[in-house]
């Protein structure tokens, strides 16, 4: 009975470790292939439309990731929601001040799609690392528990009533 329980625990823990390892091995294939086209479409559409409901999110993304536009800062010259095609939003500027977006040369050059993908890929690596670490910790816990059970059985403690 105890042996079956231990086997099931070991199988579950090994599956966790293999899942974490799979994240590391296939992270570039699985994550980017599945999310690539969706991220591209969503970010390009959001920048192109620049609707009032999305403006705060787009500006925060540009500030956080230090990027401008979807692919590059020139995306703002084609945006229907952004009226001033000779400038970029102030959130594209490295230093925050009102009206800084009028000088496109001082705006961030890289687009937000590549910055967002890099961020997601880095965090996927952390998820895989945490899975592996938890799996190893659980294996250690199972081994210690089994050793403790065997030690108790070997000493043949008597019941005290």
From TrEMBL:
It is found in: Membrane. It is a multi-pass membrane protein. InterPro entries: Tetraspanin/Peripherin, Tetraspanin_EC2_sf. GO terms for cellular component: plasma membrane. Its main location: membrane. The chain crosses the membrane at residues 5-26, 124-147. Keywords: Membrane, Transmembrane, Transmembrane helix. This is Tetraspanin. It comes from Xiphophorus maculatus (Southern platyfish).
């Amino acid at each position: 009975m105890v042996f079956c329980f231990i086997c099931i625990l070991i199988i579950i823990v090994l599956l966790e470790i293999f899942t974490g390892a799979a994240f590391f091995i296939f992270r570039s294939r699985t994550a980017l292939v599945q999310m690539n086209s969706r991220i591209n479409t969503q970010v390009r559409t959001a920048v192109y439309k620049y609707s009032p409901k999305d403006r705060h999110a787009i500006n925060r993304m540009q500030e956080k990731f230090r990027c401008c536009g979807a692919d590059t800062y020139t995306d703002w010259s084609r945006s229907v929601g952004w009226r001033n095609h000779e400038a970029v939003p102030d959130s594209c500027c490295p230093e925050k001040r009102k009206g800084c977006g009028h000088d496109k040369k001082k705006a961030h050059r890289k687009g937000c799609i590549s910055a967002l993908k890099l961020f997601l890929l880095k965090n996927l690596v952390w998820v895989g690392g945490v899975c592996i670490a938890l799996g190893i910790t659980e294996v250690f816990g199972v081994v210690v528990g089994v050793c403790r059970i065997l030690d108790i059985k070997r000493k043949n403690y008597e019941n005290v009533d």
